[in-house]
Amino acid sequence: MAREFVTTTDLLPHQRPAVAKLLPTRAGAMFMDPGTGKSRVLLELARLRQDKWDRLFWFTPCALRDNVREQILIHTDLSPTDVKIWNGSPLEPASLAAIRFHVIGIESMSASDRTVLAYNAMRTSKSYVAVDESSYIKGWHARRSQRIIRMSAKTRYRAILTGTPFTQGAVDLYSQMFFLSPSILGYRSFWSFAANHLEYEERKNAFGKKVRTGRILRSHNEEYLAARVAPYTYQIRKDECLDLPEKLYESRYCSLTGEQEAYYEEAKWEILSLDYDDWSPIKIFHLFTSLQTIVCGWWKRPNGALIEMRHRRLDLLLATLEEIPDTEQVIIWAKYRPAVRAICEALAGIHGAEQVVPYHGGLAQKDLPRQLDRWRSGARYLVATQTIGGYGLTLNEAAYSVFYADSFKYSERVQAEDRTHRIGQTRRPVYIRLRSLSGIDDKIAWALERKGNALSEFQEQINVYRKQGLRKNAMELVKNL
Predict the structure, then answer these.
(1) Hey, which bits of 386-426 come out as E strands?
(2) Contact in structure between 159 and 23 (CB atoms under 8 Å)
(3) Cβ(300)–Cβ(336) under 8 Å?
(4) What angle do CA 68, 81, 65 make, to 5 degrees?
(5) Element (H, E) at 130
(6) Strands 298-300 and 306-308, how do they pair?
(7) Would you tell me the crossing angle of helices 15-22 and 38-48 to the nearest 10 degrees?
(8) Largest CA-CA distance found in the chain, in angstroms, rounded
(9) Can you list the residues of the chain whose pLDDT is less than 50?
(10) Which of 159, 264, 329, 428 has its CA 20 to 30 A from that of 422?
(11) What is the pLDDT of residue 28?
């Protein structure tokens, strides 16, 4: 029998109502802004119930497994040997039976049969299962979502934690709530949920028959959904509960070189030369990605060839960093790995390799915590991608963040910002956006200012023109990017 544990940090005032509301129910959702302490609430619930569960399986994005363990060790009297991270090493259920806390990468539930089999062997009807950053299971058809939901269906306690539960509207709600319990929304299948709450775009096929495109136009009966989830949900925004320093924003600009302008127009021509009916969402995504990489100084052609071109964005970054005091650590958010490599090489040439720490998905999972330790131990620059570094981490050591290239989605941008705007931050965070004088950067900036999604908004406008038969207007939309 594992020893009882105690929590070693006090609950904050806004965390106490979360515990009080969710304790009476065996399934609960913490929709709490990044930095408001979702992990601390979960650990308090686990402590109060610890005589009723055998093991707690804490699912989280793979890149955040070590971060979850650190949160457990910070807020409880548990030791590192009391927390098992499932990181690809051999998993023998018999030898792990005495360990109560297990941290599992969400992605492993689709990529690793060994992880799936071990989880299937170890979880019981008395287990406690929590899904951190539960937006990772919002896709109902995804293999990891199906496995986690179905294999956890009969466990005693279930919880989800996220600061961004609805990035695409009501459709994101179904899978997360179904994991907690099918009875919350009252639908036993996604199709019955969709029939009552989702309106899909329809288009005539080659035979003149209307078929769904898969794109959701709008949601219906949202008041009903809100009423159904309310008893199982605690929701709070950061500005409602934390007295954090206000954010400060700046933008810096550079023009394109002639070489960039030429490739920029070529990338647009690849779309314009296609038959209008072939302008699929995939093609539009490829267009946006191509234009954004070109304004950052490189382009991966459709044939796989990588073209690097003269550009001014890196010079703009270096000039911006020169204005930041030498005593300050800085996070540089770069969306693409070639940009990470170029930034790291440039900074290492100036300041030395020991001052520059890359952090991206191309690194082995076991190396990511070591990279953070290097930065926290005194390296000045952390050069990270938003997809890996933008979730779950607390990076309050830095007050300055530079966005070398932005995400298309506001939800991803604000997640990255919140790495330095969390409990414990005492200085005013500064966010500096680098932009080129180009249509794509303008389009992205405009969408983010309105808390939108640049790609989906552009696609929606294309679809409006398509439905109205306004091919010329759609062509102009692309030309004006």
Answers:
(1) 400-403
(2) no
(3) no
(4) 20
(5) strand 128-132
(6) antiparallel
(7) 40
(8) 72
(9) none
(10) 159
(11) 96
Q: Which of 28, 64, 33, 67 is nearest to 45 (CA)?
A: 28
Which SS3 state, helix, strand or coil, does residue 182 take?
A: helix
Tokens of 197: 């709450």
The residue among 249, 247, 244 whose CA lies nearest residue 425 is 244
Output DSSP code: residue 31: E
- The pLDDT value given to residue 346: 96
Helices (H), 368-453: 368-376, 386-389, 410-417, 439-449
pLDDT of residue 246: 86
- Kindly report the length of the chain: 481
pTM: 0.73
Q: What is the DSSP letter of 453?
A: B
Parallel/antiparallel/unpaired status of strands 306-308 and 381-384: unpaired
pLDDT at 133: 87
pLDDT score for 393: 84
Contact by Cβ (8 Å): 369, 80? no
Give the chain's count of helices (H) and strands (E).
Answer: 22, 17
Instruction: Give the relative orientation of helices 454-468 and 471-479 as an angle to the nearest 10 degrees.
Output: 150
Which residue's entry shows tokens 């990468």?
A: 105
Q: Which two tokens stand for residue 15?
A: 């965390």
Q: At what angle do helices 454-468 and 439-449 cross, to 10 degrees?
A: 100
